[in-house]
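Work Package 3 (structural annotation) set out to generate three-dimensional models for the target panel prioritized at the project kickoff. During this period the team completed the workflow that converts sequence records into discrete structure tokens, so that structures can be stored uniformly alongside our sequence database. As a representative example, we reproduce one entry of 210 residues exactly as it appears in the project archive.
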Amino acid sequence: MSDNGQIQCAGLVLAGGGAVRLGGVDKAQIQIGDQTLLLRATGILGQFADAIAISGGPDPTGPEMHGYPVLKDVSPGGGPLAGIAAGLSWAAGEAFEWLAVMPVDTPFLDEAPYLRLIEKAPGSPLLIAETARPQWLASFWATRLAADARQAAAGEDKSIAHFAKMIGGTKIAMPELAPMFDNINTPEDLAKARARAVRNSNQEPRSDNV
């Protein structure tokens, strides 16, 4: 536990994937408002995680990674689970018992779902946010799952859904937070996200000095 009673954890930004429907661009470096998606994700995780790493990215040593450790998937072609398995091993090596996982392409996701997941730990080794459906990539993992996740990522069924069922993961319902989980997969999604960010910015309260 941290000094305020909250479980200490590491954070992992999932920033891999080919972004085929976006023309193969690096999603992490897409700008929404005044920030890249990567900087926004690390900023959110930094509100409750004590160390952060990145899974994926075209240039692990590039300045756009801002000095965060960039982890290689434990099994090529293993999908998100392979990236998470690498994150679990890294976090365990840093002496953390828990890892919060966040996808880079959800520009409106904030810390609220993670604080709910953290509240439910350590009752389950894997907790998943659920709206109308499970949000598999917004999840909270016990690092003792590292070896199991590595094995599953090299197996026939590499889905997080299968792994969660196998080890007894727990879904935490939060349907009212569904709009936070809108993600960016297509040019249309990106245009909508940028328009939404502008609307949100225009709705922010102005200070008395403005």
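The chain has one domain: 10-200.
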